[in-house]
């Protein structure tokens, strides 16, 4: 038996003992996970620093604080989420008890990405534990240090048979994918998303795919451009642009392009000083493969700011590209790096048309003081999430479903949505063996007379 097979078999066996079904046990595991974040901040921060040059405060802000919030929400609400949910009845079932009973699915496979390695790997795990499942956790091998720390720490704090960590790259993940799971929760790019779905189809396993895409950002010429650009600068260059919901590119009228560039440049300086390379809050590209991929994307576009780089430490400066054409290299795929192309458009109509020509993105941003502009953008396009006048913050709202649509993914999570995503919502109807007379009309022979017609 391979290491992967053993981990899955052990998780299945542990699930079959039934211990993960008890709400007390689930809460205990969640609290243990909470303790891990309280006690091991230093180890987590050091690994994130080595992998992505994340600062300690930055790591807490974007990784562990959100997880701690999700854990305490789950602990607080678990009884309510797991309880039977009464539903409306029809005439035939008036005297019955009709409800939805969430039940665990079984063994879940969680495959994480590297950009926010704790957030995107542990957040589904919180939901898997809360929903009473076993879960095999596969962190991304690309964040070398973090995946090692995760492999070391998780088994110390939570049930290592129910929630094993399996590390490794493509061969190990593919070996995992040959096993039978009851749900696969994958975060990463769409090409691998298709591999996951194909493997899942062999066992009829349902999947959640948290993918990416080119998230557009439209700036209305009537908005407060200074504030808009400050928020966009934050959304774009946090984690060096390696954020699934980062604004990928800007659409705006040519008349405001210069202002937009100036304001973003100002914010870059405010946030990361004149020399982002030495600024502790400015990240690095995860590895040289991604460094080369991002640098190649700049070809053929005009650099309006930034553009400098250093391959040996995977540094790429916060960069703005101006007058970018739809055919440009940088517009062909998700950037996932600190390049911000600006595409001039004649106005809202052209922006909407342009967005609708592409795949449905994970997030869509509009900056405007005018509700009509915001509503038109919302109603005439489609995307995983929609934000007006800010970036990224919807990720932090546990009461909003987070996920993609079309090419940006399927299924959603956060808060109760993760619990529901990783539960089977079982429809239950409990009838008494009394009052059989009421049922007479449904039994053959079916005559109009019997029905009173
Ligand atoms: P990655 O390279 O770490 O891959 C993700 C996982 O897939 C890893 O665990 C890896 O081992 C596995 N994998 C890679 N190739 C495989 C293969 N051929 N077969 C089986 N498994 C394989 O991460 P990535 O894809 O570079 O991540 C970046 C992408 O993820 C971006 O597109 C980004 O937008 C997206 N993303 C989405 C979200 C979200 O919540 N929707 C969050 C973060 C990242």
Q: Can you give me a brief rundown of this structure?
A:
It is built from 15 helices and 17 strands. It is an alpha/beta fold and 453 residues long. The strands form four sheets. It has a seven-stranded mixed sheet, sandwiched between helices. It has a five-stranded mixed sheet with strand order 4-3-5-6-16, sandwiched between helices. A three-stranded antiparallel sheet has the order 1-2-17.
What does this structure look like?
It is a single chain. With 453 residues, this protein is α/β, with parallel strands linked by helices. It has helices spanning 3-16, 23-39, 41-52, 56-82, 117-130, 144-157, 170-177, 190-202, 225-237, 254-272, 288-297, 348-357, 371-379, 416-421, 448-451; strands at residues 85-86, 97-104, 107-111, 134-138, 183-187, 207-210, 216-219, 249-252, 302-305, 309-310, 315-316, 319-322, 339-344, 363-367, 385-388, 409-410, 423-430. A seven-stranded mixed β-sheet has the order 9-12-13-8-7-14-15, sandwiched between helices. Strand 14, helix 13 and strand 15 (385-388) form a beta-alpha-beta unit. Helix 2 (23-39) packs antiparallel against helix 4 (56-82), helix 4 runs parallel beside helix 5 and helix 9 crosses helix 10. The longest helix has 27 residues, at 56-82. The chain is globular, with a radius of gyration of 25 Å. The model has no long low-confidence stretch (mean pLDDT 97). Bound molecules: nicotinamide-adenine-dinucleotide.
